[in-house]
Amino acid sequence: MGLAKVVAKEGAKHGVRANVICPGFVRTPLVDKQIPEQAKALGISAEAVIRDVMLKETVDGEFTTTEEVAEAALFFASFESNALTGQSLGSHNAEAEGSSPSLTTKINGLGAFFVA
Length: 116
Fold this sequence. Notes:
- The chain has about 120 residues and is of the alpha+beta class.
- The protein is about 40% helix and about 10% strand.
- Helix 2 crosses helix 3.
């Protein structure tokens, strides 16, 4: 998030906007590969990894879809005003209030940084 704010501030005079999408966990082949690995490492079932590890802090207990991430990117790209820059957007199932999603520390998550 800090990088987006710096790019937004320094790029404003050049018409550059920078925003971040924080989608939480996205069900990708990488995540699918890591589910059984985490289950084995933690000694729990794959279902428990999904429910109690990956999606525990989400609002709705579901993975974000790649389509939802794309829609968020289109939202940022279609907003022509410079009023929307240096911002972050969490999806409907990003981590619940009180926790702090991190694009750099979320091993199984997907982070997207957009500059327009």
